[in-house]
Recover the amino acids of this structure.
C-alpha cells in the first residue's frame, strides 16, 4: 500500500504550522499503480491472444481506463493545490489510517494462519487481537469476547452447515 | 398488464415454498439492525449474509436478501431520527426533520411516520414493478447483441458517471471491475491474467470479491471508530406515539405517493439509488409545500417524503435488474451476485422464462412490506439500545463472518484471500475517492459485456455501420449520450466556479 501524504505529517500537537504536502502522493501512486496494471494486463493479453475475442474488450477498456486514471491524477493534483489542511484533521486521519493498516495486517495474518492453525484457533486469536488493537486491555474481556464469538461461529459453520474448514480442536 | 398464468404460478410457488416465509422476518430484523447501527450499512449486511443463501433455493435466497434490503431502508432512519446520525447513506434527508422532531419530544411519532412511509414506499415500488414487468419483459426480448452491448455500456457508464466522485474516477473504477471480470480462461482458450495459478483459471470468484469490496473495505475504515451516542437515545418510546406517527403518515397520501413514485423512478436508473432518491424526494416535498420554511424544523412531511422514496427505490431498481440483468447500485449488485450463485442469469430471457418466480418475488416483497410494519414497530422499542451497540465489538465479528462465508462459497482459501485482496483494494479506492460500487458492477456485468461485444463483432463483421440498420441500438446510443449531458454540464459548471474561486481568493497559507 502506498504511503499516504496525510500520514507523513510529523507535526507535534504543539507545532503551529505543520508541513503540508503539495502533492497527493498516495492518490497519485495508487492511480499510477492501477494504470500500470491495466497497461501490463492489456499488453500481456494482446501478446498471447488467440483471436480478436481475447482482446476486443480488454484493450480498448484498458486504454480508456488509463486515460481516466491520468485525468484523475490531474484532478487530484489540482484539488490538492486548492486545499489547505487542518492540523487536527490531519492528525485524526493519520491515526485512523494507522488503525486501518494495522487491522489489515491482522486480517492478512488471520487468513494466512487458518490453514495451519485451524479456523477455530485463528479466529479466537484474531478476535482478541482486534479488540486489543482498538484499545481494550482487560484480559478477561479479550478472552471472554473471543470465546463467546468463536464457539457459536465454529459450531454453526463447521458442525451445522458442514463447511469443511480446517480446525484445531473441533 | 399482468400475466395471469404466471401470477397464479407465483401464488402456487409461494404457497409451496414455506422456507421462503421463514427467512423473511430474520432478514428484516438483520436489515433494521444493520441499518440502525451507524457505520454498518445495508450493503455490508447483504454481502455478509449472501453466503448463507447458498443453502437456500433461489426464491428463498432472493426474498431473504430483499428482506435485509427492505429492513435496512427503515433501519437507517432510526439513528437519523434519534441521534441525528443517518444509519446509512440513504437516510441522510430523514434526519433533516426527524431529528428536530426528536428534539421536540416527538421521536415516537417521527419513527412511526418513517416506518409507515417505508412500508408504503416499498409497496409503491413493487406495485409499479407488478404492473410493468409484463410489458418490460416483452420489450426487452427485442434486444439483440448490439442493443444489449449498448445497454451494458450505458448501465456501467451511468454508474461510473452519476456518482458523487469525479467522472474520471468513476470510469476508472468501472474499468477496474470490467478487467477483473476477464481474468481466467477465455472463450478463445487463453489464460488471461492468471499468473500461471490454477486457482485463477475460473477467474476471480465474484461473490468473494464483492464481499471484500463492499464489506471488508468499509470495516477497515471503521476500526477504532465509535460513534458518540448521547444518552438521549435512551428515551422511552411509546406505542401510542408510534401509532400516532403511522396515522399521521397515512393521513398524508399525497406526500406518501409522491415520495414513492419519485423513489421508484430514480431507483430505475443505474447509478442513482436510494441515497439520491431520499434527498431528491425531500427537496421536491419542501419545494412543493405551502410553507417550505417549516422544513428542517421538525415537519413530519420531510420524514415521510424521504423515507417513502428510499424504500420505493428498491422496487424501481429491481425493474432494471430483472429486465436487463443490470444492477443499479450496491444492493442490486449483491442480488445479481446471488443470481450467479444460484446459476440464474438475469436479463431479457429471465422474466419471459421465469414469470412465476418474478411474480413470486414481487408478491413476497409486498408481503415483506406489511411484515416490516410489525418488525419495525417491535424493534423501535429496542432502538435506543441498538444505536448504542459498540462498533468496536461488531467490526471483528462481521469480518470473521465475511471470511467464513467466502470460504463456504469457494470451498477453499481462494475465497478468504479474495476477500482480503478485495478489501484492501476497496479501502484504497474509497480513500482516494473511487466509487467501489462501479468496480463491483463492472465485475458483475463484464462477462455479459464481453460476450455481447464478441457476438456483435461476429454479426457485423466488425463494420460499425451495421448499427445504422438497428434503430433500437441507435436510440439507445442517443439515450446513452443524452443521459451524460446533465452530469457533464454540472461538471463544467463546477469547474468554472472552482476556477473563479481559485483566482479570486487563492489561499495565502497554502503549504
Amino acid at each position: 500500500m502506498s504511503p499516504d501524504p496525510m500520514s507523513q505529517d510529523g507535526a507535534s500537537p504543539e507545532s503551529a504550522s505543520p508541513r503540508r504536502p503539495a502533492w497527493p502522493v498516495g492518490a497519485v501512486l495508487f492511480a499510477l499503480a492501477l494504470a500500470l496494471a491495466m497497461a501490463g494486463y492489456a499488453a500481456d493479453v494482446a501478446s498471447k491472444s488467440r483471436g480478436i475475442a481475447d482482446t476486443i474488450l480488454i484493450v480498448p477498456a484498458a486504454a480508456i481506463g488509463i486515460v481516466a486514471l491520468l485525468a484523475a491524477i490531474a484532478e487530484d493534483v489540482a484539488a490538492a493545490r486548492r486545499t489547505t489542511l487542518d492540523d487536527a484533521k490531519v492528525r485524526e486521519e493519520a491515526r485512523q489510517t494507522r488503525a486501518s493498516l494495522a487491522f489489515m495486517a491482522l486480517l492478512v495474518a488471520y487468513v494466512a494462519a487458518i490453514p495451519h492453525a485451524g479456523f477455530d484457533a485463528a479466529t479466537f486469536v484474531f478476535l482478541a487481537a482486534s479488540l486489543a488493537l482498538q484499545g481494550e486491555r482487560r484480559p478477561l474481556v479479550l478472552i471472554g469476547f473471543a470465546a463467546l464469538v468463536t464457539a457459536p461461529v465454529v459450531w454453526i459453520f463447521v458442525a451445522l452447515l458442514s463447511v469443511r474448514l480446517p480446525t484445531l480442536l473441533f | 398488464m399482468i400475466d395471469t398464468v404466471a401470477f397464479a404460478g407465483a401464488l402456487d410457488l409461494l404457497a409451496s415454498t414455506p422456507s421462503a416465509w421463514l427467512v423473511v422476518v430474520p432478514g428484516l430484523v438483520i436489515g433494521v439492525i444493520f441499518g440502525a447501527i451507524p457505520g454498518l450499512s445495508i450493503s455490508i449486511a447483504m454481502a455478509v449474509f449472501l453466503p448463507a443463501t447458498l443453502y437456500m433455493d433461489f426464491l428463498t435466497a432472493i426474498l431473504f436478501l430483499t428482506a435485509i434490503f427492505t429492513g435496512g431502508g427503515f433501519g437507517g432512519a432510526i439513528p437519523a431520527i434519534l441521534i441525528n446520525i443517518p444509519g446509512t447513506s440513504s437516510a441522510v434527508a430523514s434526519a433533516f426533520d426527524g431529528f428536530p422532531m426528536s428534539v421536540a419530544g416527538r421521536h415516537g411519532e417521527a419513527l412511526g411516520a418513517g416506518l409507515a412511509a417505508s412500508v408504503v414506499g416499498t409497496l409503491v415500488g413493487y406495485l409499479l414493478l407488478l404492473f410493468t414487468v409484463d410489458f418490460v419483459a416483452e420489450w426487452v426480448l427485442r434486444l439483440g447483441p448490439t442493443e444489449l452491448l449498448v445497454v451494458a455500456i450505458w448501465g456501467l457508464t451511468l454508474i461510473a458517471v452519476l456518482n458523487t466522485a469525479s467522472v474520471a474516477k468513476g470510469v476508472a473504477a468501472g474499468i477496474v471491475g470490467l478487467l477483473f471480470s476477464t481474468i481466467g480462461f477465455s472463450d478463445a482458450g487463453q489464460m488471461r491474467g492468471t499468473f500461471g495459478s490454477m486457482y485463477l483459471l475460473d477467474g476471480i470468484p465474484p461473490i468473494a470479491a464483492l464481499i471484500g469490496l463492499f464489506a471488508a473495505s468499509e470495516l477497515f475504515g471503521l476500526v477504532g471508530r465509535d460513534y458518540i451516542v448521547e444518552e438521549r437515545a435512551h428515551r422511552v418510546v411509546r406505542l401510542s406515539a408510534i401509532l400516532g406517527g403511522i396515522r399521521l403518515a397515512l393521513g398524508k397520501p399525497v406526500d406518501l405517493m409522491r415520495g414513492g413514485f419519485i423513489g421508484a423512478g430514480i431507483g430505475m436508473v443505474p447509478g442513482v439509488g436510494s441515497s439520491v432518491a431520499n434527498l431528491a424526494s425531500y427537496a421536491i416535498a419542501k419545494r412543493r409545500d405551502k410553507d417550505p420554511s417549516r422544513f428542517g424544523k421538525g415537519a413530519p412531511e420531510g420524514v415521510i417524503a424521504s423515507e417513502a422514496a428510499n424504500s420505493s427505490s428498491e422496487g424501481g431498481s429491481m425493474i432494471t435488474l430483472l429486465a436487463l440483468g443490470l444492477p443499479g447500485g450496491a444492493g442490486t449488485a449483491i442480488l445479481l451476485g446471488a443470481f450467479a450463485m444460484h446459476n440464474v442469469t438475469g436479463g431479457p430471457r429471465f422474466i419471459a422464462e421465469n414469470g412465476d418466480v418474478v411474480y413470486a418475488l414481487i408478491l413476497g416483497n409486498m408481503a415483506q412490506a406489511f411484515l416490516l410494519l410489525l418488525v419495525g414497530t417491535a424493534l423501535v422499542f429496542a432502538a435506543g439500545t441498538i444505536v448504542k451497540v459498540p462498533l468496536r465489538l461488531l467490526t471483528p465479528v462481521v469480518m470473521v463472518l465475511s471470511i467464513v462465508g467466502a470460504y463456504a462459497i469457494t470451498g477453499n482459501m481462494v475465497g478468504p484471500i479474495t476477500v482480503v485482496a478485495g478489501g484492501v483494494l476497496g479501502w484504497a479506492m474509497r480513500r482516494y475517492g473511487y466509487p467501489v460500487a462501479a468496480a463491483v458492477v463492472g465485475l458483475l456485468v463484464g462477462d455479459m459485456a464481453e460476450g455481447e461485444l464478441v457476438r456483435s463483432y461476429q454479426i457485423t463483421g466488425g463494420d460499425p455501420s451495421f448499427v445504422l440498420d438497428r434503430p433500437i441500438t441507435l436510440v439507445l446510443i442517443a439515450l446513452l449520450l443524452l443521459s451524460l449531458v446533465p452530469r457533464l454540464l454540472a461538471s463544467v459548471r463546477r469547474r468554472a466556479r472552482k476556477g473563479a474561486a481559485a483566482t479570486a481568493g487563492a489561499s495565502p497559507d497554502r503549504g
User: Anything to note?
Assistant: Chain A touches chain B through 71 residues (CB under 8 Å). Residues 1 and 30 of chain A are 8 Å apart (CA to CA). The radius of gyration of chain A is 23 Å. Chain A has two domains: 22-84, 86-170.
